[in-house]
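Lecture notes, part 5. Sequence design as translation. It can be helpful to think of inverse folding as translation between two languages: the language of shapes and the language of residues. The source text, in C-alpha cells, appears below.
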C-alpha cells in the first residue's frame, strides 16, 4: 500500500473510531480506494479497507442502547461503505439489517415502512450475487407479512 493510500485509510479509520459515519467519511474511503499507483496496491488497499470496515461495523453495533434511528443510520453508512469497498456480502447484510429494523419500527408509517418493491429489489440483488438462501428468506418473510395482513383484514 502506498503512503498516500495508507494515510487516507488511516484518516478513515480515525473517523470511524470517533463514530463519524457520514458522507465526508465515505468520500475519504472512496479516495483511499482509488489512490493506488498500480493494481496490486489497489487490491491491497481494498482488502485492508474491507477488514477495517468489518471490524468497525462490529464495534459500531456493539454499543449498548443504540436507538433504532441511530442503528438505521449506521447500517446505511456501512452498506454504502461496503459497496464502495466491493464487499457485496457485507453490503447485503447491512441492507438486510436496515430493512428489518425499518420493518420492525415503522410498519405502521406509510412513508417509512418497507415497501414490497424494496423487499423484491433486495431479493433480486441477493439472487444476482449468488445469495440464494437469503433471497428465499426474504421471499418467505414478505409472503408471511402479506398473509398476516390479509388474515387481519379478513377477521375485522
Amino acid at each position: 500500500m502506498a503512503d498516500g493510500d495508507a494515510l487516507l485509510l488511516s484518516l478513515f479509520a480515525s473517523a470511524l473510531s470517533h463514530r463519524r459515519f457520514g458522507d465526508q467519511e465515505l468520500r475519504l474511503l472512496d479516495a483511499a480506494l482509488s489512490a493506488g499507483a498500480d493494481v496490486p496496491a489497489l487490491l491491497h488497499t481494498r482488502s485492508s479497507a474491507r477488514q477495517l470496515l468489518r471490524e468497525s461495523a462490529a464495534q459500531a453495533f456493539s454499543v449498548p442502547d443504540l436507538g433504532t434511528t441511530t442503528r438505521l443510520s449506521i447500517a446505511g453508512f456501512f452498506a454504502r461503505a461496503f459497496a464502495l469497498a466491493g464487499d457485496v456480502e457485507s453490503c447485503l447484510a447491512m441492507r438486510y439489517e436496515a430493512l428489518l429494523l425499518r420493518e420492525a419500527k415503522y410498519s405502521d408509517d406509510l412513508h417509512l415502512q418497507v415497501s414490497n418493491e424494496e423487499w423484491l429489489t433486495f431479493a433480486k440483488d441477493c439472487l444476482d450475487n449468488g445469495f440464494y438462501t437469503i433471497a428465499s428468506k426474504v421471499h418467505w418473510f414478505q409472503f408471511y407479512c402479506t398473509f398476516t395482513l390479509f388474515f387481519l383484514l379478513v377477521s375485522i
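The translated text above is only one of many valid answers, since several sequences can fold into similar shapes. Residues 115-156 form one domain.
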